[in-house]
Amino acid sequence: MKKRVTLTFPKRSIQMPVTYRLAKDFNVAANIIRAQVAPNQIGTLVVELLGDIDELDAAIEWMRSQDITVSLASREILIDEDVCVHCGLCTGVCPTEALTLEPQTFKLTFTRSRCIVCEQCIPTCPVEAISTNL
Length: 134
Prior knowledge:
This protein is an alpha+beta fold. The chain is built from 4 helices and 8 strands; from the N terminus they run βαββαββαββαβ. The chain has helices at residues 18-26, 53-65, 89-93, 121-124; strands at residues 2-9, 29-36, 43-50, 69-72, 77-79, 99-101, 108-110, 130-132. The strands form 3 sheets. The protein has a 4-stranded antiparallel beta sheet, with helices on one face. The chain has a two-stranded antiparallel ribbon with strand order 5-8. A hairpin with a 6-residue loop joins β6 and β7. α1 crosses α2 (53-65). The longest helix has 13 residues, at 53-65.
């Protein structure tokens, strides 16, 4: 099972090897999607966790016991079709090719199942047609 979560670390937990502990102690793989971590500051990590449902739940409980805030991600990328001019700039920054241009029509196509909500497309859009639902 997969779960996408946002982890917020207090300053004192920033040095903790969380992804190592998830793999070693809970058999949970952590795919880091985005990270903002700096010494002596609050850290934020967006990860996709992959593992058995019971192991995922145990791993999340362990992280919470370490004062790591765990938020289940429910954000999605939204594209305003009325605003989009199908320029294709967003396709160049999309790491999973969730955003593509149709070769025949040059219309933007969004494959939601491929999207990891990295949000790299948002600042790239010149007409601000791309946003998140939160």
